[in-house]
Amino acid sequence: MNEIQFCLLLAVALFSIGIYGLLTRRNAIGILLSIELMANAVNINLVAFSRVHGGAAGQVFALFAIALTVAEVAIGLGLVILMARTRKSINVDEARDLHG
Amino acid sequence: MNLHSLALAIPLLPLAAAAIVGLVRPIGRRGGLAATISIAAAAASLGCALLLLSHTAERFVLKLPWLPVGGRTLAEVGLRFDGISAPMLVVVGTVALMVQIYSVGYLSDEASGPRGRYFTWQSLFLFAMQGFVLSPNLLQLFSFYELIGLCSYLLIGYYWEKPSAGRAAVKAFWITKLGDVGFLIGLLVCWTQYKSFDLAAIEHAMTAGPAQANTWLLPALLFCGVASKSAQFPLHVWLPDAMEGPTPVSALLHAATMVAAGVYLLVSTSFLFAASPVMGEVVMYVGAFTAVFAALQGCVQNDIKRVLAYSTCSQLGLMVAAIGAGSVAAGYFHLVTHAFFKSLLFLAAGSAIHAVHTNDLREMGGLGRGMRWTGVFFGVGMLALAGIPPLSGFFSKELILASLEEHPVALVLGLATTIMTPYYMGRAFLLAFSGKPRSAAAEHPHESGWLMRGPMLLLCSLALIMGVFLWSFADTIHEPVHLEVTSIGLLGIALALAGLGLAWVFHGPRKTVIDALPKSLLEAARSSGVDALYVFGWRHVVFVFAATVSFFDRYIVDGLMNLIGWAGDRAGDALRRVQTGRAQDYVLALFLGLLALVAWGVWGG
Amino acid sequence: MPILTLIVFSPLLAAVVLMVLPERSRISIRVTSLFAAAVSLALSIVALTRFLDGNPLRETLPLIPKLGISYSLYCDGWSSVLLLLTGIILFAGCWASWTVAKRDREFYVLLLVLSTGVFGVFVCLDLFLLFLFYEIAVLPMYLLIGIWGSSKRIPPKGPLAFAMRIFDVGGREYAAMKLTLMLLGGSALILVGILAMANQGAGTPEFNMEALARVHFPRELQMWAFPLLWIGFGSLAGVWPFHTWSPDGHASAPTAVSMLHAGVLMKLGAFGVIRIGMVLLPEGAQAWAPWVGGIAALNVIYGALSAMAQTDLKYVIAYSSVSHMGVVLLGAATMTTNGWNGAVFQMFAHGVMTGMFFALVGLVYERAHSRDIPSMGGFGKMMPGVAVCFTLAGLSSLGLPGTAGFVAEFLVFLGAWESNHAAWMVPAVLGAFFTAVYVLRATRMIFWGPSKAENFPHLSDARGVEWVALLLLGAMIVLFGVWPALALHPIDITTMSFLPRITGLLPH
Hints:
By secondary structure, chain A is an all-alpha fold. Helices cover 79% and strands 0% of the residues of chain A. The N and C termini of chain A lie far apart (49 Å).
């Protein structure tokens, strides 16, 4: 197993854990953490492929992605705080006012 | 004043009167003023007609384009004056004027507003009728024909608050409209056959152009219109009911003019019927049958106006039969004489009804003592209608019998009518004017005033002497007449006298018999079944069909639309449950979708 | 002066003025609307005279050249007569809604916006804009019926009444929704047809009708595009079986809206069928003629028979519209000079007549608070003027000579008789006879007979402003009945400009 395969497997594992968490967690913070895992799995892929192909584009892109993820987490946490204030709970199953 | 403007004034003066009385409300509200304007217009119109009558050697046609189609003129509007229209103009004008004057007296008890309405319709009718007589083409004939029907509807419905009057008015309109459907289709056929509606052009095309197939079609369709307006079997059912209108209206429209419009239409399109011997025979037999059938009905009526209505129907049948047999002069001359004596009879009957306030012969009796004038007028009318020489009816009846000479069946029917007519008229006269009064109202009847007697007097004198105008009439319409002493003529006189004798025997002053026939027979005769057939057709065929169509529309067609809407609604309701509102469910769907796409990309397509 | 633009947009301008008008006084709202209607009416007379002078109005402005869309208005004989009709009905409708009390400013705004759409469709040469105007004309109906419609419903009767209750038949929301959905369904088909025609050539799409008229579309396209357009436009013209929005819609709509809808909007559909469907796709029209003409003839007698069986006054009039629009579509299907002239003349005649009918029904309903015919009777005593006007409208409806209805029906019957399918004439003529039956029956039951005034304490004759609409429309019925050439002449010129070219294109 060479370097790149190892990286990809790590990314797949992280992504799967993230998906699993995203789908099963009821806690909003937990969901945010899962999304972070998935985002970082993608970042690992970017860095890994950047190394294979040479050049810095992938790494620059990963840096951008990290910065964006920070922004996203900031908004996400803001929403969670808002939810905690209004509903006194951060269980996402309770936030389903848009059901049909 | 030239002839053209005279001819134009004949229909337009009454139209102006109708517009003034009908649209200017202060005038319409004042019955007397309305009557004055209407009568003045009618008198002026009659004056123009009389002036024109002395110029029958002239014939002219005035035309204006009316319907521009395809860059050409499809139909024109105009007027045609010739020997055919001249006598009719005078007859219509005279009777209309007399009836309008009479109406002033007859309706004097009415409120002003309704009288204004009455004279509006009367003037409108005179316009429509004279416009009809002067029409140069079939489309215009049809238009005025329908307008006449409209005026009849409005005038029958004069007492619109009475449910029976409303029903009679609507029935009259429907039945005449039913016949006009045939007339309308006739117009379409006429256009495809001759590419013109103009009577002169059609006549020219028939003689000069190539021979047409189906020459019977156009006359057959026109005859539908004739039969409905002139109350020929089986479209006669509206005429007896039309007696719900005021009596002067019955005298003018439903005796003298409107019902004669059908006959006039036959006269002016007689060349079409002459070209098709089959249709000529059909017309003749329908007319002859109507004459006998209606006369039979007339024998058993107890309502004096219904007796006269059936009599009108029967006499119209004779006119139609004569024209069908090819003798236009006989039918047309009978139209003229009949117009005078039948309107006289109606006006006299109206005078009696005005005095005793009932139409029922069983509640009259002995009126002759209190109402000598009316009795004499009715008597003269009766003798003229019976065809007793030398009164006017004699001449025209003889001509009709002579025209039927070569058709034995029609002749027998005509002769049967000749004996029944004097019988039912004699019966009505004797029951009303002789014997003892049979109700309180009939004890002391009051003779009508001169406003009513004057018009009757003039019509009475015309009914007496009209016969001598036969030869000048024949000259005017350019048709030969031969009045000779024949065995049939003598038989006709004998039958007329026999009919009067029968009436005297059964209903003479000493007798109190109302009906000469046993009761069961009477019932059978009165319910002729034709009316019942219409009622059945209306209630159980047309209306049931309409209700079925409506049901189909509401529940099947619209039901399908509603079902589609409902199905959409239900489907949406079912599908909305997919939207759980939980974000994680959406993510799961997204992820599965992504997996499916990847799988498709790797293994599929 | 851009006269056509003024005709089309003066109602919209008035609507904008009304919306920004600071004060909401009754009188200023009505005067503004009437002024706009009068401007449009007067200018449409100008447009008619300009056409007759051989100098027809035309206004063009490129809008989106890359997509072949331009703002081009043109007023031919058909358009000018229909503009006149719209002007008359809008003017009369503004008078007839004088008594609207609830949210009257919004009512007039929507009415004016709608009429901009109608004017636009009649003069627009560009199919894209035409579709836009068409939608503008249809959509405000939803609000007009849903908000101002009559809430009083006659409970469904009969063996299947329970089914009607499931669907809430008779409610104004139901009627508004049904009308909008069915007409928008039709628009979707129209849009498909228009796009198919516009994208026929290679390169830029072509939306201009004059340019499209020169294109010879392949037979295959004509065969499928024509029925799309016919059903799409036909659903607005009340063609069977897509007519069922009409009885419910007209019964629920307020007076002026019924007037405009039955009087003018239904004509948009018929106009589209002839002007776009038949003029642009003649081969398709000819191939489908046996079907579309047969359905139109069916419409005539079907509508008349359905009207006979109704007891609700507005349903009677609504079904009579279905029947009379059948006459229009029949005339169109004949593809003869007489038939087309009759069809366009019938659009005018029926518009005026039905506008008058709905104005009268509105008056009766306002006073009697009932539309149930059997419960009425003897109204002639209290409302003689209304009775006379109702009779006049009825006479035009049954095609009495001397009224506009006769000329139209006669020409259509003649066209049907001359066409390849003479049998169409029979149901049409019978339908005209049945019209006489139900119209006179309704007149007798409502206005004649002994007075039932004790059940209807508020009956009174038309007063003041209410007369304006009645007199105007009544005068039009008689004027165009006695002197039909006024409208028939311009109609005929335009028919003659379309028809020979079309028949020349057709395979024999």
